[in-house]
Each structure stands twice: as C-alpha cells, then as structure tokens.
User: Fold this.
Amino acid sequence: MKTLKWIAYISAMIGLLLVALGSVSAVFHIRLLQVNYMSSYFMGANSFFLITIIIFLYIHLAGNKKI
Assistant:
C-alpha cells in the first residue's frame, strides 16, 4: 500500500505541474512542451487526477476490510 500511495502522490504532482503549465501558457500565450492547445494541459492533468483518486479510493476501501 505504501508504494501505491507514492504512485498516487507522484500522479497528483504531475497533474499539478500540468495545471501550472497550462495556466502559464494561457496567461502569457506561449507554447510550452510543443503543445498547440491550452486545453491539452488540463485534459492531461484531469487524467492524472483521476488516477490519483482511483488509487486513494482503492487504498481507503481495501484498508477498511476486516477479515
């Protein structure tokens, strides 16, 4: 479970990085990482955030099972 938590934290950090890059790209009208559309950053961040949510839900629900 500890490894899954680290993967979730890394996924969340990548999502936050993509949101920050998308915001900078929107404000200054520059192309970062050769991405043409600003929404591409936020769609990528959305995917990483969904992965993070699924992993944390799995950890929470699997950790509460009493055998």
Remarks:
- Residues 21 and 33 are 9 Å apart (CA to CA).
- The two ends are 17 Å apart (CA to CA).
- The mean pLDDT is 86.
- The first helix runs from residue 2 to 28.
